[in-house]
Amino acid sequence: MPVPISQAWTVASYVLKQKIQGRKQYPLVLMLEPLYKCNLACAGCGKIQYPAHVLKQELSPEECFKAVDECGAPMVSIPGGEPLMHSEIEKIVEGLVARKKYIYLCTNALLLKEKLHLFKPSKYLTFSVHIDGQKEHHDFSVCREGGFELAIEGVREALKQGFRVTTNTTLFDGADPNSVRAFFDEMMALGVEGMMLSPGYSYDKAPDQKHFLGRARTRRLFRAILSNRKPTWRFNQSMLFLEFLMGKRDFRCTPWGMPTYSIFGWQKPCYLLQDGYADTFHELMTTTEWDNFGTESGNPKCANCMVHSGYEASGVDYTFGSLKGLFAAAKATLFTRNDDEEAYRMLNEPVRPVHSYNPLVQIESPSNNLEETRA
Ligand code: SF4
User: Fold this and answer.
1) What distances in angstroms separate CA 175 from CA 44, 133, 169, 242, one per listed residue?
2) Distance 310 CA to ligand 1 centre (A)
3) How many domains does the chain have?
4) Nearest ligand 1 atom, CA 294
5) How confident is the prediction along the chain (375 residues), in pLDDT tens digits per residue?
6) Is the terminal CB of the chain with fewer CB neighbours within 10 Å at N or C?
7) Ligand 1 centroid to 197 CA: how many Å?
8) What is the pTM of this model?
9) CA-closest candidate to residue 85, choices 52, 47, 36
């Protein structure tokens, strides 16, 4: 089971209700970005390039609750920026737990250990820790030496105190499949509840434009990584989305499945693109030209996209859309091994991880000074 039964039941009954009501476009996870400020400046990130006056702004807890109530999704993901740098993050979490929302607080965990006392363990709260792979790869990816150790220290402490902890990993070109598989072993040994994966998206604001994956390369990479799976690996996401990444099935993008709310309002059409903003969730849903987005639309910005914020909700929607979908999801959950001789051969292909020939560059951002953020 990728998530605890109570969460699976909440999500399943919510989706079935939407189906019974004949609602074709419904939100599954609200991406709530209460700030853009971060204590890292990752090369693949498009969020921390905003000017200083934007990075200083925060959504208030009341603004967050209004967005959550308007949207109605059963799950709320809190990315950013780094949410643990929000001055009232504990109030936001408390209010969402009171609303019985399943929260994924996405953190790089640099501040996790020292901020844990602000939170209480709850089945509704999961720390989704951003770790992009084994030590060398992660430090390179987040442009911070020692970032991996700090994140692991935070994970250990959170687990010790009884919190739900998952990892979220974004893979870019140059990822070494064998190293990613070894990373899965490390995370399982650490005791995290499950892992989430996504390919990166080529943000035009990201400083590193060289290492984004095209669709064919994405499928090849995930096929090598996720075939011949070890029984110990647990993934905290739709198994059909993983099959999509491996090239075993195709989905259309459902950008309304994970709508984004930030200091600018409701972002059109998805977490990745900024085609304007709406003032209300209703306005977002009714005024966005959804047909202009998704790979099939021919929109060049969507051409190579396979990210979880566009396609994971598609997997969940497919699961509950027919008996065929339910059967496919049950099969993918129960029979996880995915035997594939060709994928074994791919693991023996030589790889040149980006960190083996590129120096680690620590990019300065207005807010990447830890001492400053602790003040
Ligand atoms: S394909 Fe990707 S970029 Fe395009 S709308 Fe969907 S999630 Fe957004």
Assistant:
1) 13, 9, 11, 17
2) 5
3) 1
4) 1
5) 668 899 999 999 999 999 999 999 999 999 999 999 998 877 767 676 788 899 999 999 999 999 999 999 999 999 979 999 999 999 999 999 999 999 999 999 999 999 999 999 999 999 999 999 999 999 988 888 899 999 999 999 999 999 999 999 999 877 899 999 999 999 999 999 999 999 988 765 555 655 567 889 999 999 999 999 999 999 999 999 999 999 999 999 999 999 999 999 999 999 999 899 999 999 999 999 999 999 889 999 998 999 999 999 999 999 998 999 999 999 999 999 999 999 999 999 988 766 665 655 544 444 444 444 443
6) C
7) 16
8) 0.91
9) 36
Is there a domain that residue 370 lies in? no
Burial of 334 (0-12, 13-18, 19+ CB in 10 A): exposed
By most ligand atoms within 8 Å of CB, the mutation choice from 272, 295, 308, 312 for ligand 1 is 272
Kindly state whether residue 68 falls inside one of the protein's structural domains: yes
Question: Amino acid letter at 128?
Answer: S
Ordered strands of the 164-171 beta sheet: 194-199, 164-171, 125-130, 102-107, 75-78, 29-32, 260-262, 265-267, 277-278
* Number of Cβ atoms within 10 Å of the Cβ of 207: 16
CATH of the domain at 210: 3.80.30.10
Q: Side chain identity at 146, as an amino acid letter?
A: G
C-alpha closest to that of 132 among 165, 175, 163: 175
Let me know: does 351 contact 176? Beta carbons within 8 Å. yes
Q: Are 306 and 253 in contact (CB under 8 A)?
A: no
User: Which range marks the domain in which residue 298 is found?
Assistant: 5-17+27-359
